[in-house]
Amino acid sequence: MTAATLVGLQSVPGLVILYGGIVKKKWAVNSAFMSLYAFAAVWLCWVTWAYNMSFGDKLLPLWGKAKPALGQKFLLKQAALPATTHKFHSGDIETPMATPLYPMATMVYFQCVFAAITLILIAGSLLGRMNIRAWMAFVPLWLTFSYTVTAFSIWGGGFLFQWGIMDYSGGYVIHLSAGVAGFTAAYWVGPRSTKDRERFPPNNLLLMLVGAGLLWLGWAGFNGGDPYAANTDSSLAVLNTNICAATSLLVWTCLDVIFFKKPSVIGAVQGMITGLVCITPGAGLVQGWAAIAMGVLSGSIPWFTMMVVHKRSRLLQKVDDTLGVFHTHAVAGFLGGATTGLFAEPTLCSLFLPVTNSRGAFYGSPGGVQFLKQVVGALFVIGWNLVVTTIICLVIRIVIPLRMPDEELVVGDDAVHGEEAYALWGDGEKYEFTQHGSSDDTQHGHNLYPSAAATAAVQSA
C-alpha cells in the first residue's frame, strides 16, 4: 500500500504539476486537468471492470474476463496471482508462494495506480490541442481495449507471461504502450496551432522540477513494490532505479554541453525520465554494473533519436508529440526491455519468473533466446497499440472532434475551462528573452523552444 501511494503521488501531484509547469502558460490548467481527470476516471473503470480484465480469470490468451472488483467477499480474500509469479520473503529465507500474504484489495490498489499513470503519460503527447471531451472518452476506451490486454498478456498469466517475457515493472506494459499510443493518438488528433509549435516556452521551470522530483522518488514504489514483499529483490530494484536514473541524467546533460554548449534543465529531466523508464523492465533482474550500462544507453540513444533522428525524419516532424513521449517512453522502454534480455542475472530471474529458465544473453545459453523473446514481446505491444489506438481515435471522432476548435486553440485555458493558471498579464512574453531561450528549437528538442526566425521576428517587433 505504501508503494502504491508512492506511485499515485507520481501522477497526483507529480505529473499534474510537471505538465502544468512545462507547457506554455495558456495551457497550464488544461494540461494539469487532463492528468487529474485521467487519474479519477481510471479508478472507477478499474474497480468496475478493468482490474479483472488485467488480472482475473482468462477469457482469451491475451485478455481476462470483465467483472467488478467490489464487494465484501472480494475485499476479504487474499490476492491470487499466476502460480509462482514471485518468491516471497519469509523470515530470512525466500520461499516460493503462489498467494501473497495481503488482501486482494491491496493488489487492486497497487495495480490501479500503474494503469492511471499510463494514461497520464499518453496525455503528454496530446497537450495543447486535444478536445477535452474527446480525452474524457479516450481514457476509459484505451484502458479497456489496450492497457488490459498488455497487462494480462505480460503480467496476468497471459500468453507472453507463459512464454517467459520479462517486464519487471512496466517497461512494456506502461512505458512502451504509452509512448506508442501517445504518438499514434497525436497523429490522429493533429498538431498544435502553428504559433504554439513555433513558440512554446515553459511557464514555470521550478514547478516542473518539483514534479520531476516527485516522479523520481516515487519510482521507489514503482519498481520497489513489484516483488510484493520487502525482500532482496525489492531493495535491489530501488537501488538500480536510482543508479540508472542518475547515470542517464548525467549522460544527457553532458551531451547537451558537448553539442549545444549549455546544460538544459529540461534536458536533464528528459535524461532522468529515460533512465527511470529504461531500468523499469529489469530493475530487480540486473546487477548494479548493468544498471550503470543501461543508464549510459538511456541517456544517449533517446537523446540521439530526439535531437538528430527526429529533426531528419518527415514522419516524426509531421506528428506533433508535445513532450516527446515517443522518445522518452517508447524508445527508452524498448531499450530497457531489450537490454533486460542481455543483462538479466539468472538467480534474480528465478526469483521473479520461475516459469521458465530465463537469463540474459551475457550469462550464456539460452540467454540469446531471452533477448529475442524480449524483442518479439515489444513488437506485440507496439503493434497492438498502433491498431487499437487508431481504432479508438477514429471511433471517437465520429461523435466528438478530436481537436479543439480554432478559437479555443488561440485563447487556451480561459476558453476551455474559464480559468487561468496565474493572475498575470499576457502569455509570459516578459520572461521569454533569456539567453537560453533565444536559441534555435533544434537545441533541446521537445518542441518547447522557439525557432530562430520566430525569435528574430518578435525581437524586431
Average pLDDT, rounded to a whole number, is 86
Structural class: mainly alpha
Q: In angstroms, what separates the terminal alpha carbons?
A: 56 Å
Number of domains: 2
The CATH architecture assignment of the largest domain turns out to be Orthogonal Bundle
User: In CATH's first tier, which class of the largest domain applies?
Assistant: Mainly Alpha
Give, in order, the helices and strands: HHEEHEEHHHHHHHHHHHHHHHH
* Main β-sheet, spatial strand arrangement: 1-2
Pfam family, one: Ammonium_transp
InterPro entries: Ammonium/urea_transptr, Ammonium_transpt, Ammonium_transpt_CS, NH4_transpt_AmtB-like_dom
Transmembrane segments: 6-22, 34-51, 107-127, 139-166, 172-190, 202-222, 234-258, 265-283, 289-309, 330-355, 375-400
Function: Involved in ammonium transport.
Write up this protein:
- The chain is mainly α and 461 residues long.
- The protein has two domains: 386 residues, Ammonium transporter fold; 53 residues, no CATH class.
- Helices cover 65% and strands 3% of the residues.
- It has 19 helices and four strands.
- The strands form two sheets. Strands 1-2 form a two-stranded antiparallel ribbon. Strands 3-4 form a two-stranded antiparallel ribbon.
- Strand 3 and strand 4 form a beta hairpin.
- Helix 1 runs antiparallel to helix 2 and helix 14 runs antiparallel to helix 16.
- The longest helix is centred in the last third of the chain and has 33 residues.
- The relative contact order is 0.15.
- Belongs to the ammonia transporter channel (TC 1.A.11.2) family.
- It holds the Pfam family Ammonium_transp.
- Involved in ammonium transport.
- Its main location: membrane.
